[in-house]
Design a protein that fits this description.
286 residues, alpha+beta, six-stranded antiparallel barrel, 36% helix, 36% strand
Length: 286
């Protein structure tokens, strides 16, 4: 009985350590409330954009996001309730939340306008008396178009170094002013994720090929999602700088689509040049 208890305890310890290692692989990000300097809907613009960033980072799976309630409690305690955080205090607050990185920024541009394409088609249809064209425009082209600009900085809380600082934009249409703006914010958040992929890049290898199934050695634990399109490349000759090999040249050989995702591997199908993809090839995001 004692022996069995020891085995059970050891198994529990292994499981706990395994879960901690998985969690440790994901860097923690504290998303600070954004500042709105666009002049558009002062109260909600920054809030909506902040929420879209949190959703995008969380859904990507590559990072863990500090819970809003936890971060909100820290901000309130430090006197930053419902206002943008002073950039000089951002790293300190990020450390207090236990985050590896702190994301801070501001909305520099935001507006929603009539979709010029839909408006032009509707105008032509009205002038020519072609009601069908107007109905088609209304059915397939959204009436409004939203645009937003986000200036952000991602800071390493350990060193205080700015890892990346860029401006991203979102540009999408919608059936209403609200939906057009939300879609633009989501688009900006997606573009933000593409930018910070260089901070914690996704890299995998083709582990096996069986018929049309291409197995790669990374999965959901690395932030991979079903439906993603990935680039497959092959290493060729070395890159030599000052007599030292600093990397390998890569040639793109095809693209694959993620069909099924598991924790540590995924099954893909070729989108382009299936015969050119070989076991051992590099897989990365575009």
């Amino acid at each position: 009985m004692i022996f069995m208890k020891k085995i059970f305890a050891a198994m529990c310890a292994i499981m706990i350590l395994s879960s901690l290692n998985c969690a440790a692989a994901k860097k923690i990000v504290a998303v600070m409330p954004l500042e709105n300097v666009s002049g558009y809907d002062e109260e909600k613009v920054a809030e909506i954009m902040t929420e879209q960033l949190i959703v995008a980072i969380h859904s990507a799976g590559t990072y863990t996001v500090v819970e809003r309630t936890q971060l909100g409690a820290i901000l309130k305690e430090q006197g930053f309730q419902n206002v943008a955080v002073d950039p000089d205090k951002a790293v300190e607050l990020g450390k207090l939340s236990g985050a590896d990185y702190t994301l801070l920024g501001k909305v520099t541009m935001a507006f929603v306008e009539q979709n010029p394409t839909a408006t032009a088609i509707a105008t032509i249809g009205s002038a020519l008396g072609l009601g069908g064209i107007q109905e088609t425009a209304g059915g397939f082209l959204h009436k409004f178009k939203g645009k937003i600009g986000l200036e952000y900085r991602l800071v390493d809380n350990t060193t205080g170094e700015i890892i990346t600082a860029k401006i991203v934009e979102g540009n999408k249409s919608g059936s209403s002013v609200a939906s057009a703006f939300h879609n633009a914010c989501k688009n900006a958040a997606d573009n933000f994720l593409k930018d910070i992929d260089s901070v914690n890049p996704f890299r995998a290898r083709v582990a096996e090929i069986s018929g049309s199934d291409i197995y790669i050695d990374h999965g959901s634990d690395s932030g991979l999602r079903r439906g993603e399109i990935l680039i497959v490349a092959r290493e060729t000759s070395p890159i030599v700088v000052n007599g030292k090999i600093v990397g390998m040249k890569q040639n793109e050989v095809g693209k694959i689509k993620v069909i099924e995702v598991y924790s540590d591997y995924a099954i893909c199908r070729a989108e382009e040049h299936s015969n050119a993809i070989h076991k051992g090839d590099i897989v990365k995001r575009s």
